[in-house]
Amino acid sequence: MAIDLEPELGPRKRSFYDRNERLLLGGAAVLLTLGAWQWAWSAKVISPLFFTGPSTVARRFIEEWTHGRLKQDMLYSGTNFVIGVGMAIAVGVVLGVLIGWYRRLAMVIDPFVTTLYSTPRVALVPLVLIWFGIGMWSKVFIVFINAVFPVLINTIGGVRAIDVDLLRAARAYCASDWQIFTTVVVPGAVPFILTGVRQAVALGLIGVVVGEMFGGSEGIGFMVNYGGQTFQTDTVFLGVAIIALSGITLTWAAERLEKRFSRWRPER
Q1: 42, part of any domain
Q2: Does residue 184 surpass a pLDDT of 80?
Q3: Average pLDDT of 170-196?
Q4: Domain that holds residue 217
Q5: Domain containing 161 — which CATH number?
Q6: Mean per-residue pLDDT for 141-150?
Q7: CA-to-CA distance for 80 and 89, rounded, in angstroms?
Q8: How many other β-carbons are positioned within 10 Å of the β-carbon of residue 246?
Q9: Res. 10: pLDDT tops 80
Q10: DSSP string, 147-190
Q11: pLDDT at residue 12 in the model
C-alpha cells in the first residue's frame, strides 16, 4: 500500500489578485476606455460639437467646483434623493408587509398597485408639477414614485414566501401577530426588502434627473438639461459622470448590504 509522505496542505491562501479580480479587471477596462477616448479627442477624431474628452470634463469639473454652482447642485440633488428614497423605503416596507400578510387587504389594493406600477412614471411628471409646483417637493415626490414600487413589490413577495411551517410553529406557541412579524416575517423578508432597496436606488437617481430636467432651476439634472440646450457637451458629460459615479457607489453599497443580510432568515 502506497504511503502519502507529503504533509496535508491547508486551504490555499488567496492572492491579492484573487481577492480583487473583479476590481482590477473592471478598473483596467475603464482606464483603457478612458485612454482611447482621450486619444480620439486629442487627435480630433471626434467633433467637439457632439462629443468631448475626459480632460475637458475634468477641467469643467474644477471650474464648476471652484467658481460655479456644482456644490449647491450636488447638495440639492442629494437632498431630493435621500428624502425621496427614504420615504419610498419606509412606505414600501410597511405597506408591503401589510399587503403581503392580510389577504383581503391585498385583494383591495393589488389592482391599484398593478396599475401604478405598469404606468410609466414619466407620464405623471406634469401632473406632479401641477400638484406640488416647481419647488423641491415636486422633485422629492418624483423620486418617491420611482423608488417605492421595487421596495413594495419585493416586500410583498418576501412576506408571501415565508415558510408556512414556521408560521404554524409560531401560532402553536400562541404568538401574537406582532411577535410573528418581528421574529418570523420581517427577518425572513429582509433579503427581499434589500433587493428592492437596491433597485430603488437606481430608479431614485432616474427620478432625480427627470424631476430636475422637467421643472427645475437647480440640481444635476438641470445642469445636464441646460448644457444640452446650450451645446455645452462638457457640462452634459460632467453631469452624466456625476450621476453614473453616484449610481455605481450607491448600488455597490446596497449590494454589500444585501449580501450581508442574505442569510438573515429564521431557522427551521
Answers
A1: no
A2: no
A3: 77
A4: 56-260
A5: 1.10.3720.10
A6: 92
A7: 14
A8: 18
A9: no
A10: HHHHHHHHHHHHHHTS-HHHHHHHHHTT--HHHHIIIIIHHHHH
A11: 62
Q: How many domains does the chain have?
A: 1
pLDDT confidence of residue 229? 85
169/227 Cα distance (integer angstroms): 61
pTM of the model: 0.81
- Whose CA is closest to 152, among 66, 229, 94, 220? 94
C-beta of residue 207 within 8 angstroms of C-beta of residue 121: yes
Tell me whether residue 80 is in a domain: yes
pLDDT at 207 > cutoff 80: yes
Q: What is the DSSP string of the chain?
A: -----SPPP-PPPPPHHHHTHHHHHHHHHHHHHHHHHHHHHHTT-S-TTT---HHHHHHHHHHHHHHSSHHHHHHHHHHHHHHHHHHHHHHHHHHHHHHHH-HHHHHHHHHHHHHHHHS-GGGGHHHHHHHHTTSHHHHHHHHHHHHHHHHHHHHHHHHHTS-HHHHHHHHHTT--HHHHIIIIIHHHHHHHHHHHHHHHHHHHHHHHHHHHHHH-SSSHHHHHHHHHHTT-HHHHHHHHHHHHHHHHHHHHHHHHHHHHTTT-----
